C-alpha cells in the first residue's frame, strides 16, 4: 500500500523512542517535556514516529497518541512500532497497534510506503539479523539471555487474554526467542528489498510519459 502525505509546508519531522507513557506521572507529554514545540506543531505536513511510541502493551498507544494530538492533528501522524511497543503483548500484535492508531485518526505504517512530494519513506520495524560481527549464532545466544525483548514479548497469548494480556497469563505464556525476531527481520528485509528495487512514483510517471 502507498500513502501520500499532503504537501503544504514541505515540513516533515521524524521522531523515535518517545516512550510517551513515561511522562504521564509528570502530568506532561514528550513534546512539551523535551522542548520540541518549535518543530512539532500545526505547521508540519507530517510527523513520523519511527518506533517506541510507548513501552507496551498495544493498548497504551491510545494514550500515547493522545499526548501528541494537542500539538498537531492525528491525521498528520504516521506511526510504526519499535521493539518496546510489543512489550507486555505478543510479536503478532500489529493488528492491535493498527486498530489503536486508526481509532484516534492516525496512520499505521508498518511495511508501508509513504510519499511526501517526491520523497519516499519506506517504513518497517525490521529488527536485526544478529550478523553484524559475522557470528549470528553466538549473538542470538547472548541476546536471548540478556535482552529484555525475550522476557517481555510473547509468541501468542492463551485464548481470552485480551489486548496486551495481564499478569495472570504472562508467567505461563511462551516468550519469544531470537529466532522469532529473526523471522520478522527476514520478512521485513524482503519487503524492503522489493521496494528498493521498484521504481518510485516519479520514476513511473517519467516512464509513462516517455
UniProtKB/TrEMBL annotation:
Query: Record's superkingdom?
Result: Bacteria
**What is a single Pfam family found in this protein's UniProt entry?**
Metallophos
Q: What is this protein called?
A: Metallophosphoesterase
Occurrences of domain Calcineurin-like phosphoesterase (ranges):
11-94
Native organism is Sulfitobacter profundi
Q: Which InterPro entries match?
A: Calcineurin-like_PHP, Metallo-depent_PP-like
Instruction: Give the taxonomic lineage as stored in the record.
Output: Bacteria, Pseudomonadati, Pseudomonadota, Alphaproteobacteria, Rhodobacterales
Amino acid at each position: 500500500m502507498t500513502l501520500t502525505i499532503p504537501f503544504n509546508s514541505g515540513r516533515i519531522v521524524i521522531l523515535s523512542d518517545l516512550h510517551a507513557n513515561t511522562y504521564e506521572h509528570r502530568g506532561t507529554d514528550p513534546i512539551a517535556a523535551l522542548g520540541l514545540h518549535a518543530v512539532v506543531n500545526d505547521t508540519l505536513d507530517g510527523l513520523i514516529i519511527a518506533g517506541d511510541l510507548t513501552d507496551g502493551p498495544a493498548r497504551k498507544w491510545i494514550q500515547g497518541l493522545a499526548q501528541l494530538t494537542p500539538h498537531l492533528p492525528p491525521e498528520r501522524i504516521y506511526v510504526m512500532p519499535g521493539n518496546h511497543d510489543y512489550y507486555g503483548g505478543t510479536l503478532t500484535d500489529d493488528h492491535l497497534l493498527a486498530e489503536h492508531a486508526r481509532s484516534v485518526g492516525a496512520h499505521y505504517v508498518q511495511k508501508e510506503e509513504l510519499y511526501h512530494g517526491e520523497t519516499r519513506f519506506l517504513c518497517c520495524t525490521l529488527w536485526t539479523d544478529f550478523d553484524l560481527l559475522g557470528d549470528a549464532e553466538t549473538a542470538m545466544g547472548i541476546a536471548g539471555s540478556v535482552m529484555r525483548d525475550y522476557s517481555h514479548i510473547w509468541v501468542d497469548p492463551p485464548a481470552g487474554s485480551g489486548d496486551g494480556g495481564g499478569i495472570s497469563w504472562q508467567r505461563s505464556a511462551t516468550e519469544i526467542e531470537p529466532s522469532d525476531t529473526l523471522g520478522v527481520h527476514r520478512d521485513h528485509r524482503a519487503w524492503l528489498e522489493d521496494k528498493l528495487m521498484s521504481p518510485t512514483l516519479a520514476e513511473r510517471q517519467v516512464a509513462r510519459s516517455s
